[in-house]
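Reagents: none. Just compute today. Sarcosine oxidase subunit beta.
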Amino acid sequence: MQKYSGFGLLKHSLTHHENWQRVWRNPKPKKKYDVIIVGGGGHGLATAYYLAKVHNITNVAVVEKGYLGGGNTARNTTIVRSNYLWDEAALLYEHAMKLWEGMSQDLNYNVMFSQRGVLNLGHTLQDMRDIQRRVNANRLNGIDSEALDTQGVQEIVPILNCSSSARYPILGASWQPRAGVARHDAVAWGYARAADAMGVDLIQQCEVNDIVTEDGAAIGVNTKQHGAIYGDRIGCVVAGNSGVLAKMAGFHLPIESHPLQALVSEPIRPILDTVVMSNQVHGYISQSDKGDLVIGAGIDGYNGYGQRGSYSTIEHTLQAIVEMFPMFSRVRMNRQWGGIVDTCPDACPIISDTPVENLFFNCGWGTGGFKATPGSGHVFAATLAKGEANELAKPFSMFRFHNGALIDEHGAAGVAH
Ligand code: FAD
Ligand code: PYC
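Predicted 3D structure written out:
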């Protein structure tokens, strides 16, 4: 390792920010593509990557209004797990989990996927019944999942307040050992770099303000910065703005947009080596590799597009954390932020064709889409390549809200919405 004196460090910090090589190109959009993906978050970039890699479709543009991975991908708390209740959701999230397990090798880019395990705590008898039911369902689907009692939880997290005199005593938890966290930016950058290398055009600072249609079919998008860009198929992956894009195309999605907040503390020494979530007391926490405590809870209850949130939610979240971890009461909080999440009535996503031919939507992941990123991209790429839903995506059609085939995952969503 190279050693620098204080002066050397200063010199290098001032001089080494030059001649950096671009990790991806900055192309001008072509007039026409096979596929246009609107939204350069993790899901959009993963979709582009798998279109090129699995389906050999490289004449693809990702059109992003800001910078790549600057939306919810940059704002989420990176919890990855696959312990969902119903077969349809469990299979989709487990598909993603398997891709997570090979992602750094596949992309040749370290996404720092850390399988440190996730605990979902139970505080009431009903919680424990629900946990047992979900663990059983998970195991039937081949997903690693265990039901723990209080002592089992305490062994995994000795610093958690498991006293029976706590206001909401911890009766047990579900435990998924293969679950964990990943480096969110690296996921976006890894997919972007690999997609670009296969010829995908990543077009940043380019906002779509209309869907161009002809005889009821989408033929392109109109953009503020570059005018019309045409495509045979259009995939919208614009978390937080899905309703806005659907309106441009002339239909409604059963989606509400809400702020979801998170915050991090000052960095402290390593003290928490797993992820702890409580739906009942309502807060969740992990510790990043830098040492910050990464904290969040549920959505702010009102609708909105402002990427911030209300004070009362932060206050409530920290009350929950201190209830569970009294020792954190003196840790100072460093930063707080919000993202906008698109929530569906059944807490499951929409991966679907739409009333407009050649226009597809991948949205409604609510508070829990980061964990799905590779699986979502993989099945959406297949859907866009074939022009019809891939097997894993079929149950998530937007038309399930017409025929009533809902998949209620509010219990497994882990975060209230
Ligand atoms: P984004 O990363 O938001 O990408 C969508 C992109 O579309 C954006 O970059 C946006 O700029 C672009 N866009 C929008 N409109 C237009 C337009 N008109 N033209 C061009 N581009 C446009 N999930 C988990 O699984 N685990 C967690 O721990 C977790 N924690 C969370 C914590 C917070 C505070 C938040 C806000 C979310 C959390 N989530 C979590 C949810 C997760 O972040 C999202 O479900 C996921 O990141 C969505 O990915 P995406 O690529 O679809 O969206
Ligand atoms: O879906 O596991 C989740 C989650 C945790 C925090 C936000 N979403």
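The pocket of pyrrole-2-carboxylate (ligand 2) is lined by residues 77, 79, 81, 284, 296, 367-368, 414-415 (CB under 6 Å).
Action item: order primers for follow-up constructs.
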